[in-house]
């Protein structure tokens, strides 16, 4: 027993959940301290999801409900929990947050002994009424994924109302059905225009001018419509990304050969391709993969990372095929062209904010989120520009520092509005995506310089990982240092040192 010697097999007192374990653990019985009921449900459930079912305290209102004999249908509660988790996981939410939401919903309706389980395509939940009764388990498969942060915000508001006790089971089912039926806030053609605006703004970030802006925007819009066409035919995303990358590469080749157009002398054709890649790089999936890995969900993290690899390979194939054909026809693409015009910081800042705004629209963010996400992207680019261009710091370190601030400010905004952090973070890292490094690596490989290409592609991977780790670190710093309503409890993690 803690604090002194005792009998070897003394049974511990009953835990708040109503059942004790067989023996006292060597380190003693931990003191369970959860945030109060007025704290955010994310804070409470992230703490509780790491506790054993025998250690989870039963709230007074659940005890009163059990004593009165009032009980809800367990299968219906589990079904609602899985449906909510499905929408969150399909929208790109991290596995830990999905488990916390599922536990919060089941816990609010009186199911304390539940164990949610989240993988990349499968959701499961198990409920055991007591240690002497058989468990009830059910699963749900996530077959379709789509990015709609407006729907994600609506699901978060629903979970918030459920955990606060403001939504009955029937109300929750009705609201969930309304969320599923709601149309996306922006039409497909509006999204195509946003993709063009994103690519044009990205071309300005790498030194383009007005002609490059228009060329990159046109190429991105053509690629987006081509991807929509292939999606309507049921082709996998791998082929959609490969096809969407081709118009940007083809436009770069055409700009390089169009010397007869007035004003194109010295135009950076490489910036067209680089701008087109910004609209395709899977930054959202990469951030989610690293976040799941850092929080211990290794299977889900591996699956998300494999998804990123497949999408990047699709982009590589699409761009490489066009570049190879261009080189064979005598196109002289020069990687140094896209690195000449970084001497206009205000233009770069405006372009970064426009890129963030277009990215937020592509992610189907709520209209009230667009301004905050755009400002967060502007802050990220300012920090990156000061550290890298003005102070001459390492690009990877500057990217990680800027991404850390993105995660910190995003967590602040999300905590203020009690919603997911993704709408405030994912779009804001858009200007920091390694589009130019990816293109230069592909161009070097196409021209037969394998060593230089490998160096550039390795740098692109390092920048991508710096982005993801920086965002996650900013989120964790916010959770660790920022005050929460009431005395927040620590989110206990597994302790392992030296690899064992």
Low-confidence stretches: 1-22, 28-32, 484-489
Find the count of extended strands (DSSP E, 2+ residues).
Answer: 3
Q: Radius of gyration, rounded?
A: 25 Å
Order of helices and strands: HHHHEEEHHHHHHHHHHHHHH
Number of helices: 18
Q: How much strand content do the residues show?
A: under 5%
Cross-sheet strand order for the largest sheet? 1-2-3
Specify the oligomeric state. single chain
Structural class: mainly alpha
Percent of residues in helices comes to 55-70%
What's the rounded overall pLDDT mean? 79
State the shape: elongated
Q: How far apart are the termini?
A: 26 Å
Largest sheet: 3 strands, antiparallel
Q: Secondary-structure map with pairings?
A:
Layout (H helix, E strand, L loop, with lengths): L40 H8 L11 H8 L6 H17 L4 H14 L5 E5 L3 E6 L8 E6 L7 H15 L5 H13 L6 H18 L4 H23 L4 H21 L11 H10 L4 H12 L3 H31 L16 H18 L4 H24 L4 H23 L4 H4 L9 H12 L3 H32 L19
Helix pairs in contact: 1-4, 3-4, 3-6, 4-5, 5-6, 7-8, 7-10, 7-13, 8-9, 8-10, 9-10, 9-12, 10-17, 11-12, 11-18, 12-17, 13-14, 14-15, 15-18, 17-18
């Amino acid at each position: 027993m803690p604090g002194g010697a005792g009998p070897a097999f003394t049974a511990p007192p009953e835990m708040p959940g109503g059942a004790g374990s067989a023996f006292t653990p060597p380190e003693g019985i931990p003191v369970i301290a959860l945030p109060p009921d007025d704290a955010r449900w994310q804070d409470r459930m992230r703490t509780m999801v790491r506790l054993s079912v025998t250690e989870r305290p039963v709230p007074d209102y659940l005890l009163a409900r059990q004593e009165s004999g009032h009980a809800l249908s367990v299968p219906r509660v589990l079904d609602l929990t899985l449906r909510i988790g499905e929408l969150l996981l399909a929208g790109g939410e991290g596995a830990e947050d999905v488990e916390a939401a599922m536990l919060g919903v089941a816990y609010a309706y009186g199911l304390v002994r539940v164990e949610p389980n989240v993988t990349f395509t499968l959701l499961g939940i198990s409920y055991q009424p007591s240690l002497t009764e058989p468990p009830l388990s059910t699963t749900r498969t996530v077959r379709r994924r789509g990015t709609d942060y407006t729907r994600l915000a609506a699901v978060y508001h629903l979970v918030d109302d459920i955990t606060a006790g403001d939504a009955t089971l029937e109300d929750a089912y009705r609201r969930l059905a309304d969320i599923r039926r709601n149309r996306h806030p922006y039409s497909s053609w509006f999204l195509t225009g946003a993709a063009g605006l994103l690519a044009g703004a990205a071309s300005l970030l790498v030194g383009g001018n007005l002609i490059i802006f228009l060329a990159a925007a046109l190429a991105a819009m053509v690629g987006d419509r081509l991807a929509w066409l292939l999606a309507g035919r049921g082709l996998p995303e791998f082929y959609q990304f490969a096809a969407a990358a081709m118009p940007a590469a083809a436009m770069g080749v055409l700009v390089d050969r169009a010397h007869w157009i007035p004003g194109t002398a010295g135009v950076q054709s490489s910036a067209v391709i680089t701008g087109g890649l910004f609209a395709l790089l899977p930054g959202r999936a990469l951030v989610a993969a690293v976040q799941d890995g850092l929080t211990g969900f290794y299977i889900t993290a591996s699956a998300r990372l494999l998804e990123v690899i497949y999408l990047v390979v699709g982009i590589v194939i699409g761009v490489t095929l066009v570049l190879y054909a261009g080189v064979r026809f005598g196109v002289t693409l020069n990687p140094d062209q896209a690195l000449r015009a970084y001497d206009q910081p205000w233009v770069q800042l405006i372009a970064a904010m426009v890129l963030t705004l277009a990215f937020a629209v592509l992610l189907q963010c709520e209209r009230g989120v667009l301004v905050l996400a755009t400002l967060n992207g502007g802050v990220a680019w300012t920090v990156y520009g000061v550290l890298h261009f003005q102070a001459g710091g390492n690009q990877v370190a500057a990217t990680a520092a800027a991404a850390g601030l993105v995660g910190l400010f995003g967590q602040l905004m999300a905590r203020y509005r009690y919603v997911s952090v993704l709408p405030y973070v994912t779009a804001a890292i858009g200007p920091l995506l390694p589009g130019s490094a990816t293109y230069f690596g592909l161009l070097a490989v196409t021209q037969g310089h394998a060593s230089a290409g490998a160096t550039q592609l390795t740098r692109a991977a390092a920048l991508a990982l710096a982005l993801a780790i920086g965002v996650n670190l900013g989120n964790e710093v916010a959770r660790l240092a920022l005050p929460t309503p009431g005395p927040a409890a620590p989110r206990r993690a597994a302790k392992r040192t030296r690899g064992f």
